[in-house]
Write a structure and sequence with these properties.
- The chain has 288 residues and is of the alpha/beta class.
- The chain has a domain of 197 residues: Alpha-Beta Barrel (TIM Barrel), CATH 3.20.20.370.
- It is built from 12 helices and 9 strands.
- The strands form 2 sheets. Strands 2, 3, 4, 7, 8 and 9 form a 6-stranded parallel beta sheet that branches. Strands 1-6-5 form a 3-stranded parallel beta sheet, covered by helices on one side.
- It is globular.
- The termini are far apart.
- The structure holds zinc ion (ZN).
- The site of zinc ion has 7 residues, from strand 2.
Length: 288
């Protein structure tokens, strides 16, 4: 009897260990499409300045046992100001409206309607799988003079990916965009603004340019129009790259973004800002 009891206990212990192994291993098995469905649900955490600096917290939390020290986005920008762009010339009264997570068939067309009414061109950072799903929206962007940038294929946090997967995210999206627009975009905006040093250098070696932002509407939270407007106008400055979203994560209502846009455009133009695309703001080519 004691022997049987011992065997049974060993069996129970082994079962528990195996189950634990499966559980901790499972996140790596999430397919891109599943990751993509979470997209925009966790855009950069609210940080007044500098923008998109969330790598710091992650590093601090895990720093002890991790590999070599990871530079925060602020440190990366200081080290490579020409490779990780946050703004244009602060002496020129221009600004660029940028919209991440495009396209969808609900909010992006409404954003395009507003831009057309006001004769303003913007820059859209598109997610590869979404571009494949809504190709006509991308074609409309091009037709109406907007610029397309690369926002990865599945909206993954690129800084957490293997080199192979990271490069696939970029290349795959380039191919989708090239197929739809006829050009390979030079501009890359990593989801959550998050990128590592060696990834930045790899992108540079391929003639890509990482363009984040320095004015954050925080609209991805599904804010009401007056709050979105306030977030933008209260932090505006010449040379600003303004971050907004033209579609939301699952269940996020982006009506506030659409409704805020006419006011934002009118007020900025009233304050003497010229609203331009990112290539115009930075004096670079849209393609490579
Ligand atoms: Zn995004």
């Amino acid at each position: 009897m004691p022997k049987l009891l011992l065997l049974f206990t060993v069996f129970l212990l082994m079962t528990a260990v195996c189950a634990g192994g499966r559980e901790t291993g499972s996140p790596a098995l999430i397919p891109p499409s599943a990751l993509a469905s979470q997209e925009a649900a966790a855009e950069p955490a609210p940080k007044p300045s500098p923008p998109a600096n969330k790598t710091t917290g992650r590093t601090d939390n895990t720093g002890k046992t991790k590999r070599s020290r990871t530079l925060t986005l602020a440190q990366l920008h200081r080290k490579y100001p020409q490779l990780l762009i946050l703004n244009g010339n602060p002496l020129v009264r221009q600004a660029a409206l940028t919209f991440d997570d495009a396209p969808d068939n609900k909010y992006t067309p409404r954003v395009l309607d507003v831009l057309r009414e006001h004769h303003v061109q913007a820059t859209f950072f598109v997610v590869g799988w979404r571009a494949e799903k809504y190709p006509d929206v991308i074609r409309r962007m091009v037709r109406e003079g907007h610029i397309i940038g690369n926002h990865s294929y599945s909206h993954a946090d690129l800084s957490r990916l293997s080199d192979t997967r990271f490069q696939t995210e970029i290349r795959q999206t380039e191919m989708v965009i090239h197929h739809l627009t006829g050009y390979t975009p030079k501009l890359v905006r990593p989801p959550y603004g998050s990128i590592k040093e060696h990834q930045l250098l790899w992108l540079e070696s391929r003639n890509s340019l990482v363009t984040n932002w320095n004015v954050d509407s925080l609209d991805w939270r599904g804010l009401k129009a007056p709050q979105v407007t306030r977030n933008v106008l209260s932090t505006m400055k010449p040379g600003a790259i303004i971050l907004q979203h033209s579609s939301g994560g699952r269940g996020i209502d982006m009506t506030g973004t659409v409704q805020a846009l006419p006011t934002i455009i009118t007020k900025l133009q009233g304050e003497g800002y010229e609203l331009v695309t990112l290539p115009e703001l930075l004096h670079i080519s849209k393609s490579k």
